[in-house]
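Summary for the funding panel

The consortium committed to producing paired sequence-structure records for every protein in the target list. Below we show the first two records in order, beginning with the earlier of the two.
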Amino acid sequence: MEHLKLGAVEMRFAEIIWKNEPLTSGQLVKLCLEQLEWKKSTTYTVLKKLCDRGLFQNTNGMVSSVISKEEYYSAQSEQVVNESFGGSLPAFIAAFTSRKTLTREEIDEIRRMIDAVGEE
């Protein structure tokens, strides 16, 4: 899972792909020039790196994700719980709520999520 960690710049790049996919590599180069002020070579270097790590693919000049944005964030969240709380979701929630009061809406949403998992 370590190979899925993205630095801040890689994350901005990934967001461009997730927001616009599928897109041609030429479109990606143009977006990276506009949003990141990158040269074509920089875009292709970072794209290759993230393709090699299994996050994206560049097939016949068409760029798309292998791992969706939601899957990426889910994996990152799971990694935090595993590394910092010994895999214990209750320990994570206890630590999170010790510094932040949940709203009634948040509590209700969490209950619905737990109930839905219990029904599976």
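The next record, for a separate protein in the list, is shown here:
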Amino acid sequence: MTAKSKDIKKQILPNISVLAPIGLASALVLFCQMIAFKMILVVYVSAIKTTSGVISVLLGYLFFKEKNIKERLLGATIMVIGVLFIVLL
């Protein structure tokens, strides 16, 4: 955005009510992730975080009517299977 926009303030300020909660949610996710790193092995935390891909695919389909849901869900499911292999083996 900074490379392509002449005036960033015109893009950020009108959309601050949408951007602020997104930024706060992202900060909260990172905060929780760092706490989890202290509590359990990094591999487990990273593996669990990849399962959010399935949730993202489903939410994208439900709320944004994204297409090719079968292909996206297949890819996300393969990632979750990989997580299970990491955690269980």
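Regarding this second record: The longest helix spans residues 16-39. Residues 1-39 form one domain.
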